[in-house]
Design brief:
This protein is an alpha+beta fold. Helix content is 52%, strand content 9%. The protein has helices spanning 3-18, 31-43, 57-70, 73-82, 89-92, 96-113, 126-143, 176-183, 198-206, and strands at 150-154, 160-164, 169-173, 193-195. The chain has a four-stranded mixed beta sheet. Helix 1 runs parallel beside helix 6 (96-113). The protein is globular, with a radius of gyration of 17 Å.
Length: 211
């Protein structure tokens, strides 16, 4: 199995176990909302652009709400578990599912896991950590473009990548998986440490980050 397939299966198992109405880290969304979002982004390509484009967000929200109302929760989870239909780009372009969905499914898996009481970080395979680091090296400046201060991401082994060039700068240290969650706006739930000016750190922890 690819990492995307492994994350998909584990996320769906968790969604089935928790049921609808369980909290997530996505503001205003319970598990059924997050599940409907995943169905939309893979099966309603007409509505997917509104995930990133604010002027289309109203249409996307309306479609997501219809998906949630139209399908019972177990059916929604089943649609996510099945994966993208073959007629979508994910099915037609080799490795696109792995390239695009590994990070998406990991982040949303943690959105569900870390919203529950007593969570702890799980052990992430080293090759997946390296894949996350590659994604950060290529995308950190995009993910952190809204940061109010400079940001440098640092692994425990000392390797660094620049997120935003500005002063004052904050160095954020953690495993690539934790840095990825930080860069996707989950600062309060990412196991990272901060080095820098205290006021700059506080501003960064409260900022809205992410793609």
């Amino acid at each position: 199995m690819t990492h995307a397939q492994t994350e998909r299966a584990a996320l769906c198992d968790l969604l089935d176990r928790l049921g609808p109405g369980a909290p997530t880290l996505c503001e205003g969304w319970a598990t059924e909302d997050l599940t409907a979002h995943l169905v939309l982004r893979e099966r309603r390509l007409d509505a997917a652009p509104g995930i990133a484009l604010p002027f289309l967000a109203g249409y996307t929200a309306a479609v997501q709400d219809r998906i949630k109302r139209r399908h019972p929760y177990p059916e929604l989870v089943g649609l996510v578990r099945h994966g993208p239909p073959r007629w979508t780009p994910y099915g037609l372009v080799p490795r696109l599912d792995e390239i695009v969905n590994t990070v998406e499914l990991f982040v949303h898996h943690e959105d569900v896991r870390r919203a529950q009481a007593g969570w702890e970080p799980r052990v992430i395979p080293r090759d997946l950590q390296e894949a996350f680091w590659g994604r950060l090296r290529g995308g950190a400046r995009l993910f952190l473009r809204k940061a109010p201060v400079g940001v440098v991401l640092r692994r425990p082994d000392g390797a660094k990548t620049a997120g935003r060039m500005a002063e004052p700068a904050v160095v954020v240290t953690g495993e690539p998986s934790e840095l990825l969650l930080f860069a996707f706006g989950r600062q309060a739930h990412a196991r990272v440490t901060y080095d820098g000016d205290a006021a700059a750190i506080a501003r960064l922890q409260e900022a809205r980050l992410g793609p």
